[in-house]
Amino acid sequence: MNNLSTKVIAGDPRSIARLITLVENDEPEAVEVMQQIHRYTGQAQIIGVTGVMGSGKSSLIFELALAYRAEGKKVGIIAIDPTSPFSGGALLGDRIRMTDLSTDSGVFIRSMGTRGMMGGLTSSLYDVVEILDAAGMNVILIETVGVGQDEVDIVKIADTTLVVLIPGLGDSVQTIKAGLMEIADIFVVNKADKPGVEQTIAELESMLDLVGHTEYRTPIVATSVKEKKGIQLLISKIAEHQEYLKKSKTFDTRRRQRYEAELIEIIRKRLMSFIFDEKKLKKTVDCCIDRISKKELDPYTAADEILGKILK
Amino acid sequence: MVKKIRVLVAKPGLDGHDRGAKIVARALRDAGMEVVYTGLHQTAEQIVNTAIQEDVDVVGLSLLSGAHMTLFIDVALLLKEKQMDDVLVVGGGIIPQEDIPGLKKAGISEVFGPGTPVEDIVSYIKKNVKR
Amino acid sequence: MVEKETIKNIREKRADWEKQKYSKAIQENPERKPKFKNLSDIEIKNLYTPVDIADLRYLKDVGFPGEEPFLRGVHPNLYRGRLWTMRQFAGFGSAEETNKRYHYLLEHGETGLSVAFDYPTLYGYDTDHPLARGEFGKCGVAISSLRDMEFLFHGIPLDKITTSMTINGPAAIVWAMYIANAENQGIKKDTIGGTIQNDILKEYIAQKSYIFPPEPSMRLIVDTFEYGFKNVPKWNTISISGYHIREAGSTAVQELAFTLGDGIEYVKAAMERGLSIDDFAPRLSFFFNAHNDFFEEIAKYRAARKIWAQEMKKLGAKKPRSLWMRFHTQTAGCSLTAQQPEMNIVRVTMQALAAVLGGTQSLHTNSMDEALALPSEKAVRIALRTQQIIAEESGVTDTVDPLGGSYYIEWLTSKMEEETYKYFDKVERLGGVIPAIEKGFFQREIAESAYRYQKETDENKRIIVGVNRYKLDEETSIPILKMDEKGEERQINRLKKLRTERDAIKVQKYLQRLRKAAEGDENLMPFILDCIHSYATLGETCDVLREVFGEYKEQAIY
Fold this sequence. Notes:
The complex is a heterotrimer of chains A (about 300), B (about 130) and C (about 550). Chain A is an alpha/beta fold. Chain A has helices spanning about 5-10, 15-25, 30-35, 55-70, 125-135, 155, 180, 195-210, 230-245, 250-275, 280-295, 300-310, and strands at about 45-50, 75-80, 90, 105-115, 140-145, 160-165, 185-190, 220. In chain A, strand 7, helix 8 (about 195-210) and strand 8 form a beta-alpha-beta unit. Chain B has one domain (about 5-130): Rossmann fold (3-Layer(aba) Sandwich). Chain B is built from five helices and five strands. In chain B, strands 2-1-3-4-5 form a five-stranded parallel beta sheet, with helices on both faces. In chain B, strand 3, helix 3 (about 70-80) and strand 4 form a beta-alpha-beta unit. Chains in contact: A-B, A-C, B-C. The interface between B and C is large, with 35 and 43 residues.
């Protein structure tokens, strides 16, 4: 086995970090390592934490991490922030809330930019989850970009997805886009020390009544980081959800869906890099785009041409 | 895939003046870098551990309280100890000229004092990043 | 202030002047900038005339110094009777070293003391705390116990001079040390005068030397208000500050709006506890920055007085003294350059002049070397002389509010008042000051202004002499302050000795009592005083409060 693979599986932080950089940058050396570590994955519990900006996700994740550490578990945290579409850079500031965990050797925190990916995730996220899993993390917490309505992709990767809200969101629960509400395995009403908690919970409950879950009714947990309330309850609800997944076989279905999504992502990236590679198809693609602009060619025919070349 | 320069902007010790650190962080972001900002009151251990986990190319230290000879050097030495030799270390803040040689000897590649245009910091990093 | 008929005439004549004389002039000498904007992004016209202040009525809107609306000042005869206090912020190394500097400054004519503390002290840590590593005495004096206070003020008559202390998180405790020291010297509490900064709201958004979260911090502050007006009536228990907000990068309008907003918040908190506004309001004081835009700063101070008086009246204040906005000013640290540092003397002079023309009660002038280090003796002497020359040689002190009536100044003053109220509305809609802090509103505004200022400088749209124009290829160095290297060791030994010499049982007893009181809602000052008198250290006392109140962690706003 590759030296880097060995070190990653042994949990060496430097190697974990290095490998994450390699997959983020699509470096070819990463491929062999990812191939080798795959069979060491599968035991980590993956929890997605999403919700609007200002809902206190980072602080909540900090508290969850502390609670899991108290149970003796190793925790991986992936904090995702938006990459600027103009400059390609990113300000990754979620670690500020997690300073006290920086020196805990049982915690690994990595900040990532979305790097142009939509849906609130990063395109290398599947890889990073596999890396942390293989490195021995028992729980992996993923904090996604808090811009609101478009971050439903987290459900492709997480076993349990928490949607975090705050009381008195300005508008009622109904105005939050359907997608965000549907993906919740658990609703967390954070900053529950503020007024309006009862109302928010009531609105969530009536929305859930309309949906009419049969097997699993999404629990609602009120938490307050300030008053240190609700964290243990949240932990047990997460554990209950895991239990439910395993019992109902939904767990396997979801895992399958994750691997499907991961596979598709790898194929997509390979395809894109092939098409836009100078030595491969980029000249053909550029030429097609010119002809489309001059109306000499339509996009569909162009796609046929390009795909034809790949599939040959 | 475009390789991004990853920078850690850190404020070691108790100094609370973060106007400059935040402006630099933002400017580096505008220059296309990924900037991890850890906020105030970082110990050398916290800074170095963060640098390891985030696999940064650059560590930028900001200090205006006068404690740079102790705290910057603490960080530089700890990075050396952890064999992070491929990390570029730079500093900024209120640092008298006469202290700069000592800092450079300890491993701080460059010190950016008051009045430095942010563009100078951006180009220095782009030019001197080790990886 | 000018009659309607005349206003109409002037307006017409001005239009003529623009069309003819002015447009001809700008053909010969085109305008140096497309728009002339001041530091708050307010556009400044080529000329101001009575038309610009047509709605202003002298008696109602401008008035007389010492009377509402207080635009022209809170004291009827201001500097004609008594010059502003020359109060140089100072402190470094150990208490003995700083004591020497205080004697130097007093010898050279300063008329009030001002204490700068080092970072460990600001955060409530003793010199031997692990987090204090490397920080002892670097940006202020280290005070870990009452013993240090004794050295700090050795040979200084605390009943004859007032002292301002820049301390926020542990303000109540350091104040207790000052009071205890005075009492030990036989000076009664009700005769000592001074100020503690004690303004936690601006810490969260600008200076960042907070310890506890907002709620318990506000409780401590109201405790000091209450204890103050009952027991230490000559003491200003708060210095509501805009200086640091400005230093963090805000504009002048933001400095004005955020500071006064904080002030109103403190008043409301005290009233919520049941204190009568007229009891504590006279002892509220303010602290502003004196930055580069000369006229904007003067307008700012005038607007501040008017707005504060208005707001205090709205809150129910009846005593005239409750309406007074008295302030200390410091020239802008962030405007100093490391390049050609002697030029800072010129900057500071203009900034100090603005503060004086604005009617400041007390003034600190920065030293030329402060972009490099703490002030050397020579540099601080020059800074002090700057004030003295303005006071004795310039003639500006001969009349009160000399710029009153200037069309530009009166227009700008009104404009700043208008802009301030816009901010008050914004904050109101966010739910008030503390919710706005939690939402990051102020922090964002400040970070935006700071970033804009940097961009303008880097793009050479804003010229800083010596930095982006008129640079020198070779900078000559100036001598900078050297501190006593043995200071830290001495301090740590002193602490060790203190801990063995004091009555440990007494200390524990009083710390326990403090803990219990902190968990309840009694006024904590008497409990803190007991701890301090028994020589509990700063760190030990703060640790008790840290345990009960918790510590504050900020969010990231760029």
